[in-house]
């Protein structure tokens, strides 16, 4: 039994997702990378791995984007 | 993906989120819906009215007196209690700490080549003569806590002595935990002049062996040893942040019942270390401010966390037993904001404690980017900041409102040769935005390029022998409203003619608006519109305090143009 090849952009999604939480500017890129990576992994029928990294990218990117949007909205509404 | 894998991924996201913006935002929103603490006991009787931050339902929070009136501070910053490094020509601190050296009107002789003359009782009288009603008093942590865990009682008494002098003259004091380039203990090095460094004691200066040298010419902060020391402070290396919080609690314990102390300026010009904005402020600096407030007031805005190690964004701080619920906390954003005149944070609310003041340093064309990049740039033709002098004030108002804080300019100043441009523009903006000021610096040794209100005081002369600079007396000794029930009033003083106009709205029963007219201004006073009464009270300095009681509706107060009688120098 061989382990599946790792999907190329999963690691990128992971790194961007973790960066997106302190630095919201990375959030859209993390989401984009994570969603694309997850799509390729699912379509590969088990031939590609890295789903956990892609999921972190999606979660981190989503959280980062939510915070970015909320923070920006707060600034414009409260200031 | 296995269950364990999913769990690990989930935990990674949760931990990183808690440590970063999602955590910051959650704590911030929780504090903003937490009811402010209730002050149960009556205010201790004081000579001066207690101040607080008023939060109107519409508009910006503002500093207010015990009758809810807007209070405007006009004052300066004497830097004489600071502990600067040695220049090779003197050993710091150059002046005695023991208050007895200043009692009974005594004043130590000026020490050669130090940056500042000593702060003596006559200085406070001179401030009052210029119409100042406040002073920002910078202290050095290194003198307050020279040995870890041991606070200096003589230094505390020296601070109390200045507060006593101020009280006798009706001047409020903002006690400022000051620093310049972190500390004088960052170490000597090529091109390093430690005579411009002050702040942390040696035991709290952790450079990790970083070299002390300038990465940028003439920029004392651009020093790896300074940057690393700041970084270690923000990450609470060896518990030094805990010690700093304890030092502020020590001060607060002494002045808890003293209404002369307006509040505490928690950290002067915070440098980010190796951290980038906006994370520096939102994830490190402002949570640190929240912990200071928790410790001194006893509010519980963050989660309980172990101390002595890095305290993440969600951490509060334990109650240190001071329970000071009356003083204001003056909170300065990071140094990069001063360099850009632009917000470097999200303006998130940081505490449920209501008496918060965002204090900014307005050094437009003095320390803003274009000047730092090109020291020879001409302020008159500078293209940055894009919004001109107004930029830092307009954005500061928005930042303060978002944070639920009042706004104050805790430092501004300039080379005297730019008084007609920079000084007058800054003062005009402060009037426009109804914000008080503390002018840097009160007195400074040196030459004609020194920044003091007074001419440079040379060695060998009596301590107060420097002359007040005519251009500064003309502009800083201003007619201004000290208090007004209308926080949205407008006013303008013309320092060329001595004319003054104030427009406000009043309701019957409102407390009077008080306008101070310094002795330099002799024009006739008039009030019009909805005014129930006007009275004039002369002060000991020849100034006039005008009290106007509104009867309802719009009213105005004017001072007619008349030649100024500047005291200048005999």
What count of helical segments of chain B does DSSP give?
Answer: 13
**What is the radius of gyration of chain A?**
15 Å
From the helix content, strand content and strand pairing of chain B, which structural class follows? alpha/beta
Order of helices and strands of chain A: EHHEH
Terminal residue distance of chain B: 86 Å
Name the overall outline of chain B: globular
Mean pLDDT of chain B: 94
Radius of gyration from the alpha-carbon trace of chain B, in angstroms? 24 Å
Q: Structural class of the helices, strands and pairings of chain A?
A: mainly alpha
Biggest contact: A-B, 23 and 24 residues
* Relative helix content of chain A: over 70%
In whole angstroms, the N-to-C terminal distance of chain A is 59 Å
> Major sheet of chain A: order of its strands?
1-2
| Annotation field: number of helices of chain A | 3
Which ranges of chain A are low-confidence, i.e. pLDDT below 50, for 5 or more consecutive residues?
none
Largest sheet of chain A: 2 strands, parallel
Number of strands of chain A: 2
Are there runs of chain B of 5+ residues with pLDDT below 50, and where? Answer: none
C-alpha geometry of chain A: elongated
Residue fraction in strands of chain A: 5-15%
Keywords:
heterodimer; A: 79 residues; mainly alpha; two-stranded parallel sheet; 3 helices; 2 strands; elongated; B: 570 residues; alpha/beta; eight-stranded parallel β-barrel; seven-stranded antiparallel beta sheet; 17 strands; 26% helix
Q: Would you write up a description of this structure?
A:
- The complex is a heterodimer of chains A (79) and B (570).
- The model of chain A has no long low-confidence stretch (mean pLDDT 92).
- The radius of gyration of chain A is 15 Å and the shape is elongated.
- Chain A is mainly α.
- A two-stranded parallel ribbon of chain A has the order 1-2.
- Chain A has helices spanning 10-20, 27-43, 51-78; strands at 5-6, 48-49.
- With 570 residues, chain B is an alpha/beta fold.
- Chain B is 26% helix and 18% strand.
- Chain B is built from 13 helices and 17 strands.
- Chain B has helices at residues 3-19, 21-33, 121-129, 141-144, 153-168, 224-234, 240-255, 279-297, 335-340, 369-373, 390-403, 419-432, 470-476; strands spanning 52-54, 62-64, 70-71, 74-76, 134-140, 172-178, 261-265, 328-331, 356-362, 406-412, 437-439, 480-484, 490-494, 499-506, 513-517, 525-538, 544-559.
- In chain B, the strands form three sheets. An eight-stranded parallel β-barrel of chain B has the order 4-5-6-7-8-9-10-11, surrounded by five helices. In chain B, strands 3, 12, 13, 14, 15, 16 and 17 form a seven-stranded antiparallel beta sheet that branches.
- In chain B, helix 7 packs across helix 8 (279-297) and helix 12 runs parallel beside helix 13.
- The mean pLDDT of chain B is 94.
- The chains are: A mainly alpha (79), B alpha/beta (570).
- Chains A and B meet through helix 3 of A and helix 1, helix 2 and helix 11 of B.
């Amino acid at each position: 039994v061989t382990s599946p090849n790792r999907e190329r952009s999963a690691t990128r999604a992971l790194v961007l997702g973790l960066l997106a939480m302190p630095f919201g500017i990375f959030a859209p890129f993390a989401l984009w990378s994570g969603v694309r990576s997850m799509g390729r992994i699912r379509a590969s029928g088990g031939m590609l791995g890295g789903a956990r990294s892609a999921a972190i990218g999606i979660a981190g990117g989503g959280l980062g984007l939510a915070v970015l949007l909320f923070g920006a909205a707060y600034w414009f509404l409260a200031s | 993906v296995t269950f364990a894998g999913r769990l690990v991924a989930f935990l990674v996201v949760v931990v990183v989120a808690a440590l970063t913006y999602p955590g910051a935002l959650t704590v911030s929103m929780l504090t903003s819906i937490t009811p402010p603490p209730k002050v149960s006991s009556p205010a201790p009787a004081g000579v001066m009215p207690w101040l607080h931050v008023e939060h109107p339902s519409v508009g910006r929070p503002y500093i207010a007196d015990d009758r809810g009136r807007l209070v405007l501070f006009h004052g300066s910053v004497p830097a004489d209690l600071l502990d600067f490094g040695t220049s090779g020509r003197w050993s710091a601190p150059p002046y005695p700490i023991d208050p007895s050296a200043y009692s009974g009107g005594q004043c130590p002789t000026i020490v050669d080549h130090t940056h500042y003359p000593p702060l003596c009782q006559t200085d406070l009288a001179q401030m009052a003569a210029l119409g100042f009603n406040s002073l920002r008093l910078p202290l050095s942590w290194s003198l307050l806590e020279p040995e870890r865990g041991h606070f200096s009682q003589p230094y505390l008494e020296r601070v109390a002595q200045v507060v006593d002098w101020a009280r006798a003259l009706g001047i409020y004091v903002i006690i400022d935990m000051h620093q310049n380039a972190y500390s004088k203990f960052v170490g000597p090095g090529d091109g390093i002049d430690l005579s411009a460094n002050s702040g942390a004691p040696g035991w709290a200066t952790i450079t990790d062996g970083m070299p002390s040298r300038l990465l940028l010419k003439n920029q004392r902060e651009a020093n790896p040893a300074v940057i690393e020391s700041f970084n270690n402070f923000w990450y609470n290396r060896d518990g030094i942040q805990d010690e700093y919080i304890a030092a502020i609690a020590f001060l607060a314990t002494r002045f808890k019942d003293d209404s002369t102390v307006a509040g505490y300026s928690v950290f002067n010009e915070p440098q980010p270390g190796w951290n980038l904005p906006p994370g520096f402020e939102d994830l490190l600096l402002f949570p640190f401010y929240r912990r200071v407030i928790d410790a001194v007031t006893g509010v519980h805005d963050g989660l309980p966390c172990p101390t002595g190690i890095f305290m993440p964004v969600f951490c509060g701080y334990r109650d240190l037993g001071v329970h000071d619920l009356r003083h204001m906390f003056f909170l300065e954003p990071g140094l990069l904001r001063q360099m850009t005149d632009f917000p470097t944070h999200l303006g998130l609310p940081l505490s449920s404690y209501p008496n918060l003041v965002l204090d900014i340093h307005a050094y437009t064309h003095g320390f803003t980017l274009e000047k730092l990049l090109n020291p020879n740039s001409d302020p008159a033709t500078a293209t940055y900041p894009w919004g001109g002098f107004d930029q830092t004030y307009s954005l500061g108002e928005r930042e303060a409102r978002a944070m639920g804080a009042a706004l104050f300019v805790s430092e501004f100043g300039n080379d005297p040769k730019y008084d007609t441009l920079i000084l007058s523009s800054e003062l005009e903006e402060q009037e426009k935005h109804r914000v008080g000021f503390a002018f840097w610096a009160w007195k400074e040794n040196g030459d004609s390029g020194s920044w003091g209100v007074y001419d440079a005081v040379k060695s060998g002369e009596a301590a107060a022998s420097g002359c007040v600079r005519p251009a500064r007396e003309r502009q800083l000794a201003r007619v201004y409203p000290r208090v007004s029930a209308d926080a949205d009033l407008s006013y303008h003083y013309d320092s060329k003619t001595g004319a003054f106009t104030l427009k406000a709205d009043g309701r019957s029963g409102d407390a009077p608006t008080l306008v101070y007219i310094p002795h330099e201004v002799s024009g006739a006073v008039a009030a019009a519109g909805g005014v129930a009464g006007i009275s004039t009270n002369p002060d000991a300095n020849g100034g006039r305090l005008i009290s106007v009681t509104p009867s309802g509706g719009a009213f105005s107060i004017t001072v007619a143009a008349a030649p100024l009688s500047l005291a200048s120098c005999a």
